Amino acid sequence: MNRKRSPPSRPEGRPVDRSIEPVRDRIVHGDALETLRRLPSGSVHLAITSPPYNVGIAYQGYSDDRSQSGYLEWLGTVWRELHRVLVEGGRFALNVAPTSIKNFQPIHHDLSQDLRHAGFVMRTEIIWYKQTMGRRTAWGSWRSPANPHIVPSWEYVLVFSKGTWRLEGDRSKIDITAKEFQDFSDGHWMIPPERRRHGHPAPFPEELIRRLVKFYSYRENLVLDMFGGTGTVAAVARQLGRHYLLVDASAEYCEVARARVDAARTSDGGLPVPPPDRVWETDQLDAAEPPVERAPAR
Length: 298
Ligand SMILES: C[S@@+](CC[C@H](N)C(=O)[O-])C[C@H]1O[C@@H](n2cnc3c(N)ncnc32)[C@H](O)[C@@H]1O
Hints:
binds S-adenosylmethionine, 25% helix, Rossmann fold, 19% strand, nine-stranded mixed beta sheet, 7 helices, disordered C terminus, 298 residues
């Protein structure tokens, strides 16, 4: 069901990026690939995501245990669609954790190779150091080279670009400070895992997303998470004055995300980004009209 909306009104002289209007500031319940297929080409500036890892995590309404080849093949189709919807120079930050010590699978290597095959240029990898050594119990063969374990206390953020490394943008929409820029460009980020789970088994810490959004995008860019869970990327994007688009296969997570993004007001004097009006279904996107732009709050 689509509601009729009046045409957007906006202050005179403000340039409008028409390519992102039909899709921005939405929470979409549906499949990542199906939803990407409905997005206009060249409409997203930054995608940040953490896909299901295929390790049997109990997500709402999704089975996380496909065959390894079927899983990578499916993600390969997602990467190709993502490449299409990114603008030239658009970025993709993929969070991936090393898999468990038993049955170790170097999935980060598989994924970086598949993404390059899908046309992306790999630009770096960030080590997200989670400082979780205190909790470890599995040492393998204690104090012996017979079979010692390394238990990963880190995750990766693999970063890619579409086409060129450079993302064109308006210099007045840069909001990173010199100190932040210096700190973030050291690719070893010490950030504890998220404690507030919002009913999700694997939420991002907000600080991780804040750094990626500030480092890799301009204010008013469109930031996408197509495996968006309970909405960390969308909420942080809105707080930082970026437009957002979240997709998740779970209706329950989408509802949590809607409330979270609604509460995440734009700060730092940026142009206010609208809250999500409701949770959309993927098949409603084709007929979607641009969201009405609200007057900035004074
Ligand atoms: C690792 S979690 C992401 C959590 C998110 N980063 C957060 O901070 O809440 C992966 C998410 O992908 C969703 N998912 C699984 N299969 C999907 C699909 N085919 N399309 C869209 N979302 C899917 C799951 O419901 C889960 O929320």
